Structure formats: structure tokens, C-alpha cells
Amino acid sequence: MSKSSATTRSHGPGPFITQRIQSRPEGGLLVANSRLHRKGHSAMEAASYDEIQRIPASHARAFRHLLFPRKLGAWIALLFAIGSTHFLVGALAANWPGAFPAMLRDGEFLGKVFFSGSIFFTMAAWLQWLEAMNRDVADAFDGAPHRWRWFGWRPRNLGYLACLVQFFGTLLFNFNTADAMITGLSWRQGDALIWLPNMIGSICFLVASYLAYIEVSHGMFSFAPRSVSWWITIVNLAGSVAFQLSALESVVGPAGISAHMLFWSTLWTAVGALCFLVGAYLLIPELAEADASDG
After folding, report:
1. Are 229 and 35 in contact (CB under 8 A)?
2. Which of 14, 16, 43, 290 has the maximal Cβ count within 10 Å?
3. Structural domain count of the chain
4. Same domain, 107 and 183
5. What is the pLDDT of residue 203?
């Protein structure tokens, strides 16, 4: 069998492609998974289709790395980490001001902290979307020359759709956090300008996180605790749930928002930010796994 006659199959839930498998002329298989492919990992070797289902454990050396400055994924991780830290510090300072410097006890300054964090989220989400658009697993093994794209539509790529939805959610958080710095709003104006973008943005994060989980799972559900990629999607999904709970608690209404609701809304924001911070860190060992396994 020549290389040109090798058989390539596409797999994934429903109409989506999350995995490409090519039979090798000398025997065995090459496997390209959607998420790992766009992160720059080479196709994995497998002796049979049964072996594809056995996910190898993450290499311990992958967790010793801090940054890969030449990889787009590393900058995505850094920007998400910075944005998450802004939200985490801002939320904790809002609920426990006595534990923080006087500067963080000022409401106007805290508003700027949240807005700045949302900008870092948006930059990270935009780079993540570009990454997904330019590394489509559907193109794996095709051998066609790669040309960088700034725009495109990939409806069968779950990673692309997840990144696009999350990017839209970050834009809504930009509006939400910017509007939160406006003073003198009525409850209707506050709910329309602050709560509604927060609510829709949180829904976007929740949808995007589940799409990312489906992409890694190659189906609606999976349990793969040996995989860093799986943990990233689980932690981010938990963070999205926390952001959604925060949004539900933050509606003002004609009676105003109670101190109890405000406390829990801010606390859930802190929980979500911590989850996203952990998820951002795990992006680094995910990038390092291929290098570590070669060593």
C-alpha cells in the first residue's frame, strides 16, 4: 500500500469531526485528536482501533514547564490567567475588604479591576478562536500547504464553535463590567446594562465549556482523569457553572439587590475565577505533554 492510498476516517459526535484516523502503509494507525491537533501536537501512533480508546497518562515532566513563548497556546494561557486573577482578586476584595490594601477597597477602582480582567479574557478568547480556525483536525493528513487565516467558518469543528461562543461571551463581559462603573442607574437600567449582558455572557461560557468537553470526549460524556485536556474542560465547565450562579444572584429588580445576594454573587465570581485560573495553568502542561513524552 502506498502512502497515497492510505485510508483516512473521520469520527466525532453527530456531524462534528473531533478525530481523524489514518491507516499506515506499514501497519498501525495515526490518530489526530481535534484539541491536541490545534495545540500543535503530532498525530499519535496506535496499533489498533482498540488502543485508541486507551488514553495514556499525562507525563509528570509536563507539569514542570511554565511557558512556551513560541507557542500561541502559551500566550492564551497567560492572558486567561491574568484575566482570572483580576476577577479573583476583585471578587475577594469586594467580599472581604479588610484583608486587602486600601486601594482595593475603593469601589471605583474595583470596577476597573473587573473591566481590565474582562479585556484580558477577550484577548485570550480571540487568540483561542484564531488557533482553532487555523488548526482544524479535518485538514490533518491532507498534506495541503497551510496559510494563516484571520477569518473563516468551520461549523463541523467543535473547538472552533466553543471558542467562537466563548469569545462572544467575553465581549458581553466587556459591556457588563464597563456598564457597572456607571453611577446613578435605575434598577431597570442596571438590569438591562449590567445584569443582562452578564447573564447572556455566562450562558455563552457555559455552552462553550460543554462544547469543549464534548470535543475532548468525542461524545456527550467521558471520564478520562488521566488526561490533562479532560481536566481542563472539567475545571472550565465548573468555572462556567459558578459564573452562571453568580449571574443568577446578581439581578437587581425593583426591590434592589440584597446584601446576601450580592455576597453570594461575588463569591461565585471568585469560585469561577479560581477555576478558570487553574484551567489556564493546565494549558501549559497540555502543551508540554508531547515534548515531555519524547524525552
Report:
1. yes
2. 16
3. 2
4. yes
5. 98
